[in-house]
Design goal:
heterodimer; A: 203 residues; alpha/beta; Rossmann fold; 6 helices; globular; B: 228 residues; mainly alpha; 84% helix
Chain lengths: 203, 228
């Protein structure tokens, strides 16, 4: 059974202590909501959980089928990540971007293409010509390309129009219903039925 | 085991194909390298053409100039290999999706083919414009192949190291100097041998050893400098 548990995670940038001992856990079918104002460390926490940033102290344990927790490299490969700073190749079309990354993920692009069909993004448009809302749709498709068990979503509904947000919420709900895990960072609390835990970094 | 190797190779080839596809659509490196190579070729050829350099001086001087042209032309485009990924923020997606060693291999293949293409364009024009009489064209081809690979491997490694730094241009020059200096010294000496028709001696072996060392160092260092 997949599970994610992190304890006493600390991270500084020079003299600035961004994370000062953050702990939390999430199990199958659960979503942990991380809230807090800008600069409170939400994105830093998600980057640590994704294996993109090494914490100064604390433990992060993510398990899938095996007993041993995965290291940062394993989390990078297995987690599905949506962050505002995730960009794609402007010179390639949406389809070409997904095909390229599916080869790196050692999978086929079908899952990502199916997500894009639900989010109604034209596949043959150049990624450099996408609006901010369309880029967010591509980030979702990219994150779900390899059908991850763990989703790490940083401000996942930003820039969406109403139909886009509705579709993304449905996808997230289906992911959780299928036993997936999610950690969602947002500046304010989300109205979402599957929230199992709430971590407020603003306190 | 075999399946792991084939999927790793497929990853590396996907990176290589993506690099060339993006390059053909933007022509950033091709234009930069081509323009720099053309300009320096014209300046060198007009200044030190057959009328300006004697045969003995030409054997000593022209191989140096050939490698200076190749070095600076390559330096105009190769450091972009990883810097562009950071500047356009595609590095995050690559860090999350790619196996570091396969990514390095794909980038190295791209830099190598770009350098070899540059050499294939520059060298015949340089030889023709300076009326350089090459006694051992086979040795020259071997030196260009091994030297071009070394240039690409050294530049790719340094490009990976500087990608996340602030002063990328300065840092590339500082770090590339000790990495590429041995390569250039050996390549120039071997090119002189090729022009004069002398045997390669141990210098070709030294060049191949340099290539092997930089490649191994690149594959060992890259995962460390690329990931947190």
């Amino acid at each position: 059974m997949p599970s994610l548990r992190f304890e006493n995670v600390r991270r500084r940038f020079g003299r600035l202590a961004v994370l000062t001992g953050v702990s939390g856990a999430v199990g199958p079918g659960e979503m942990l909501l991380v809230t807090g104002p800008n600069g409170s460390g939400k994105s830093t926490l998600l980057r640590c959980l994704a294996g993109l940033l090494a914490p100064d102290a604390g433990t992060i344990e993510y398990r899938e089928e095996r007993e041993e927790p995965l290291d940062a490299a394993g989390r990078r490969r297995l987690a599905g990540v949506v962050t505002p700073d995730l960009a794609f190749y402007a010179e390639l079309t949406v389809r070409e971007n997904l095909e390229f990354f599916s080869r790196l993920r050692r999978t086929t692009p079908e899952h990502g293409l199916a997500v894009l069909a639900r989010l109604e993004l034209p596949l043959d448009r150049m990624a450099g010509a996408l609006s901010s809302g369309m880029r967010q749709r591509l980030r979702w498709a990219w994150a779900l390309l390899h059908a991850p068990r763990l989703l790490l979503l940083d401000e996942p509904f930003q820039n969406f129009d109403a139909p886009g947000e509705r579709a993304a919420r449905e996808i997230l709900a289906e992911h959780l219903a299928a036993g997936g895990l999610a950690v969602v960072a947002n500046p304010s609390p989300l109205e979402f039925g599957h929230v199992a835990g709430h971590l407020d970094l603003g306190r | 085991m075999w399946q792991d190797t084939s999927t790793w190779a497929a990853e590396a080839l996907a990176v290589f194909a993506k690099e060339w596809r993006c390059e053909f659509r933007t022509r950033y490196a091709l234009n930069t390298l081509g323009l720099f190579a053309f300009t320096t070729l014209v300046v060198v050829s007009v200044s030190l053409g057959p009328l300006g350099v004697s045969v003995s001086q030409g054997t000593a001087v022209l191989p140096v100039l050939l490698w200076v042209i190749l070095l600076f032309s390559a330096a105009a485009g190769l450091p972009r290999a990883f810097v562009q990924e950071e500047e356009t923020q595609t590095a995050t997606a690559l860090r999350l999706a790619a196996t570091p060693s396969a990514l390095f291999c794909g980038k190295l293949l791209y830099c190598m083919t770009l350098t070899l293409a540059l050499e294939a364009l520059v060298t015949p024009v340089f030889v023709a414009m300076t009326s350089l009489d090459v006694k051992s064209p086979g040795l020259l081809a071997a030196v260009l192949a091994a030297g071009g690979y070394g240039l690409a491997a050294g530049s790719t490694l340094v490009a990976a190291i500087i990608a996340q730094a602030r002063s990328k241009g300065t840092l590339f020059s500082v770090l590339a100097f000790p990495v590429l200096l041995p390569l250039l010294l050996i390549a120039v000496e071997l090119t002189r041998h090729a022009v004069a028709g002398d045997p390669a001696d141990v210098a070709l072996l030294q060049l191949l050893l340099y290539d092997g060392s930089v490649t191994v160092a690149g594959f060992m260092l890259f995962p460390v400098v690329w990931n947190p």
